[in-house]
């Protein structure tokens, strides 16, 4: 891994972007971070993540929005990036039901601006965040990158599928080597407050009920953040090349005649929601009050990642058991909110 290569991490104050930037800085990379610090969730959490990154002399930060094409262009004109790790996005399935325009502006318009900058500045490798949500109505498990994903169940998922198509187009037209990462329910310290582990932990500690959708008959492929970041660091310095075996008569969605690849970043071990809650209860040594609710629009009953391609190409296998990961999150949560003195 060449630490001299200049790298841009978008969404550097976000959950996964922060962890990528932190691991790279610890390893000696020079990292430029970009984030709009929007108020989708607790801005103080984003600012505190950012404060940790700013302690490293190798980190530069720019507060700007990818939708602001002129500011993004100026950044790329001033700095030359070999690698772009694009983690910025408007996240969340349920939020997309009530705020659809935020997803078009951030995930489509913002991504287009980034692609154009990569095109004109000679970026060697674009690594971008997709999502397990793109599998939508697919029921064949485990979910494989070689399966068709044309039936999204939320606008969020549709924008992530659109990102994959846009990146492929630019890989074909302009030779921008692009790797899309379909993340499967990433969790861990410094996690997002809108995700289940954070919501459940906060509610249980506060003596409030937790919401269990579809009466708990759901499973998720929970992926610890350190495992996800390790996978990214293994592939980030290896831009994809055209697949000489790709056949237009039998098109493979997971690879291409262009320098483009898709990988699942998951654990390949789905956990039922009620089992997940039970582990949280054990780690907290508290029982949850459960409010059972119907399935929510945009949700899927199960996710399970086929990670064979990632293992074959980069020798990567996730290492963190669920209980260990949840224990680490809860330890961080107690320390962080104990220091802040509130849980807002």
Care to describe what's here?
The protein is an alpha/beta fold and 344 residues long. Helices cover 40% and strands 16% of the residues. The strands form four sheets. The chain has a seven-stranded parallel beta sheet, with helices on both faces. Helix 1 links the parallel strand 1 and strand 2. Helix 1 packs parallel to helix 2, helix 5 runs parallel beside helix 6 and helix 7 crosses helix 9. It is globular. It starts with 6 loop residues before the first strand and ends with a helix. The mean pLDDT is 94.
Name some characteristics of this structure.
single chain; 7-stranded parallel β-sheet; 344 residues; 40% helix; alpha/beta; two-stranded parallel ribbon
Q: Name the beta content range.
A: 15-25%
What's the overall geometry? globular
Total helices: the number is 11
**What's the quaternary structure here?**
single chain
Strand order of the main beta sheet, please? 3-2-1-4-5-6-11
Q: What is the N-to-C succession of helices and strands?
A: EHEHEHEHHEHEEHEEEHEEHEHH
Rg estimate, integer Å: 19 Å
Which stretches are low in confidence, meaning pLDDT under 50 for 5 or more residues running? none
User: Which range best describes the helical content: under 10%, 10-25%, 25-40%, 40-55%, 55-70% or over 70%?
Assistant: 40-55%
Number of strands: 13
Mean pLDDT: 94
| Gap from first CA to last CA | 40 Å
Structural classification = alpha/beta
Could you describe the largest sheet, including whether it forms a barrel? 7 strands, parallel
